[in-house]
Amino acid sequence: MAKFLTSRNQTRKEGVEKMPIAKRWSRFRWDKLDEVPNVFGVYELADDNDYIVYIGSGRLRDRLRYWKSSNDPCITQARKFRYEELYSDERRRQRERALLNEYEREHGRLPRCNQRIG
After folding, report:
1. pTM, whole model, 2 decimals?
2. In 63-90, which positions are buried (b, 16+ CB within 10 angstroms) versus exposed (e)?
3. 23-117 — its CATH code?
């Protein structure tokens, strides 16, 4: 299984970047979530090997805290996260769609928790 790594080549389509989130991974811990702003954006959750298990969007701190407190067996594999602030509901929806489409193009499927959760 190939990793979904950050590319240095950024291309744009309809104002939405076509590349993974260009931030470093942070540990998926409560203290780290306190540092996340509660603005609209997209996020990726990954396991210890940096394989993306879930791509989501919404108000960042709220959504990340929701998943951190979840007992969902798929999400409990998440050990890292990264996010991108977008500040608008419409832009975060577009960006989430772009990230999911790009992941599916590269891997032939959605991240494993997106397949299960939707």
Report:
1. 0.83
2. bbbebbeeeeebbebbbbbbbbebeeee
3. 3.40.1440.10
